[in-house]
């Protein structure tokens, strides 16, 4: 028979989530349109953070950037791939770009501006175990199209 928990004492093991040390809980209401914009921003990030983490990141980026530079972030470089391009990844294999690449921009603590951090590229990989994944463009290489000779064999 399984034992029951007889104590409400906290375990010495680290709990889930962010550490609670020196934190302040802040609860607020926001317009649905703002929540949708935050969620859309989060989906464009490579790791797709949840709304609380997205809000933390946006606040930290906003506080580190002077107001004048926040209005006009630097334009990222041109996307390296476009919809339909065949690409190769060292872990996921061969795939096809399945959507528009999304620029990754990070705050620059030294200048207060923004840094071009590359591109997140949605790719549908041939291996069903991986399927559709968003990967950084610098981890991709162009993949040659199969030749007509190899398709007819």
Tell me what you see in this structure.
10% of the residues are buried. Strands 1, 2, 3, 4, 5 and 6 form a six-stranded antiparallel β-sheet that branches. Helix content is 23%, strand content 23%. It has helices spanning 32-43, 51-64, 67-70, 148-152, and strands at residues 86-89, 93-97, 102-107, 114-125, 132-136, 140-142. It is built from four helices and six strands, in the order H-H-H-E-E-E-E-E-E-H. It has 153 residues and is α+β, with helices and mostly antiparallel strands. Strand 4 and strand 5 form a beta hairpin. The chain has a domain at 65-152: Thrombin, subunit H, CATH 2.40.10.170.
Overall spatial form: elongated
Average pLDDT for all residues: 75
Question: Helices and strands, in N-to-C order?
Answer: HHHEEEEEEH
| Structural class estimated from helices and strands | alpha+beta
The N- to C-terminal Cα distance equals 62 Å
Number of helices: 4
Question: Strand fraction band?
Answer: 15-25%
Report the helical percentage.
10-25%
Q: Please tell me how large the radius of gyration is.
A: 22 Å
| Poorly predicted sequence stretches spanning 5 or more consecutive residues | 67-75
Could you tell me the number of beta strands?
A: 6
CATH architecture of the domain at 65-152: Beta Barrel
Class of the domain at 65-152 in CATH? Mainly Beta
CATH domain fold name of the domain at 65-152: Thrombin, subunit H
Sheet of most strands: 6 strands, antiparallel
């Amino acid at each position: 028979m399984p034992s029951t928990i007889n104590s409400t004492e906290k375990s010495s093991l680290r709990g889930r989530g962010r550490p609670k040390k020196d934190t302040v809980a802040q609860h607020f209401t926001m317009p649905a349109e703002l929540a949708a914009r935050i969620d859309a921003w989060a989906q464009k990030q490579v790791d797709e953070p949840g709304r609380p983490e997205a809000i933390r990141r946006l606040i930290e980026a906003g506080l580190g950037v002077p107001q004048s530079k926040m209005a006009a972030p630097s334009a990222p470089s041109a996307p390296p791939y476009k919809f339909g391009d065949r690409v190769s990844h060292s872990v996921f294999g061969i795939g096809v770009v399945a959507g528009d690449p999304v620029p990754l921009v990070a705050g620059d603590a030294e200048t207060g501006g923004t840094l071009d951090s590359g591109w997140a590229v949605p790719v549908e990989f041939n291996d069903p175990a991986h399927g559709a994944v968003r990967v950084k463009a610098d981890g991709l290489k162009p993949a040659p199209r199969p030749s007509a000779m190899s398709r007819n064999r």
